[in-house]
Structure formats: C-alpha cells, structure tokens
Amino acid sequence: MTIFGQLIIGPPGSGKTTYCCESEKCLKDLKRNVAIINLDPANDNLPYTPIIDINEFITVQDVMEYLGLGPNGALLYCMEFVEEYADNIAERIKNKTDHYFLIDCPGQVELYTNHDSIKCILKSFEKIDFRLCCVNLIDSHYCSDVNKYISTLLMSSSAMLHLALPHVNVLSKIDLVEKYGEKLKFKLNYYTEVLDLAYLIDSSEDSLSSKYHELSKKLASVIEDYSLVQFIPANIKDPKFLLRIQNAVDKANGYIFKYNEEKNVQELLNKVMCNMKYDCDIDV
User: Fold this and answer.
1) Could you read off the pLDDT of 86-107 as tens digits, one per residue?
2) Taking a C-beta distance cutoff of 8 angstroms, is the pair 284, 182 a contact?
3) Which domains does the chain have, with CATH numbers?
4) Which residues have CB under 8 Å from 219's CB, separation 6+?
5) CA-CA distance, 136 to 26, in Å (whole number)?
6) Which of 65, 69, 193, 253 could form a disulfide with 73 if both were Cys (CB 3.0 to 4.6 A apart)?
7) Which positions ≥6 away from 52 have C-beta within 8 Å?
C-alpha cells in the first residue's frame, strides 16, 4: 500500500521543527493519522513526540565526544550511519500504512545539494512505495539582501535537481516582512514568483563591484535557464497558510488522486484557498 508524507528541509532557523508541529495539528484537523520522524541528530529538544527519533541511536554530541569531530563532520557521520540503517527505518514505516508522515531533517544545506546520504535514504523509502514531497523552507528575510536571495535560489534549484523529488518551496516567516519591508527593492510577489532577476541585480549595482555584479548576472541566468523555483509565502503558525501548502503538497505527491474518497477534505482545502485574502503585493 502506498504511504505518503513530506520531507521537510531548509537552512538552520528556517522553521522546520515549528512547521512539523503546526502541520501535525493542521493534518489532525483534516482527520489524518499523522506521524513525525526526526532525522536530525543535533535536535535533542523536540516540541513534538516522534514515532521514530534518530537521537535514540546516534547524536551529534556523542560523535563529537567519542570521535573528536567538529559539528559539521559529526553530523555527516551521523547521516551516513542513518544511511546504513535506512532499510530498518523503512520497515518501521511500512508497518504504519495508515499514517501520513512528516520527516524533520537537519539544517545543513550540503545534505540536499551534494552529499549522498539523504539521497540514499530516500532510495530505501522508495522500496516500500513511500511517496514524499519535499517542503523546502526558506526564511523570507533573505529577500532583503540581493546576494543572499540569489544564493537561496541556487540552493533550492540544486536541492530540487539532487533529490529528484516533487518540491514545494516555501518562503517562511512572512509575518515578519513588515520589519524589513523597507529593504525590499520590489513587491513581495516579485520574490515569490522569481521574476526577471536582472532588475534586482541592476537595482543593487552601487553596492556590488563590477566583478561581482557580472557574476551575479551569470548565476541569475543559470537559475532562469532551469526555471524551477517559485515560493509559496507563508506564516507557518497560521492555519490558512498551512492549508495552502498542504494543498500544493497533496497535488505534488499524488495524495489527492490516491485518496479521492476524501472528497470533503479536498473541498475544505479548496474552500480555504478561495477565501484566502492575504495580499503578497506589499508596497515598499
């Protein structure tokens, strides 16, 4: 039987753990059995109760103490350890076919862009017909800095290509935009829809040397050539936005097509989507 879920990734501080907590509440309101898996060996202060917690087997702190590794090296060691036991984790998931899974992942970006451990873990999940959608959380404050925004676009594109999963990219903490909105060059929908990046780079020419200005343009052209990244703006503590994300995820991983008998749930999602009045066109 097909199992569905979300792989929640993103840089440190983007709101992954908070998203898991709030999504669990939202999904329970939609009458789904929800289970959370913690795959972050550095997160030992969980505000939720995971059905599988990698900290029960290995932690970054233990690896640092016993092997003398630094934080990044210890985390990579932990993830390679998890990779070795991915089939066992998959078997435990397989016994919960009536559950919808949220997988809370570490914040180290290299795990999703060039390291193979997460990719190999996902291959083990494929064996049990575990259909995941990757939810990539990006802190919206990156929009206030041209270089950081371009970097997040590159990271998101690389993760989409590396993991080869359906992706939903989320611009989180959108409720804080008012605090730095004056730093945005354009309205917020410019950043969520990833419009012509040349305008953004040219608008910041004074703050960039000619060398880095040209480099930024070249990187922007790579992003635009792939044309993969768009964002859903969200305050992940607001149920309206969680439903919007869930609607996108259900379409991406095929949940709505498998469970078409849940017509009332889909009608609720569509109704909320139609009634949302949040305006992304913030004047700055």
Assistant:
1) 999 999 999 898 999 999 999 9
2) yes
3) 3-140+164-184+229-262 (3.40.50.300)
4) 150, 154
5) 18
6) 69
7) 37, 38, 89, 92, 93
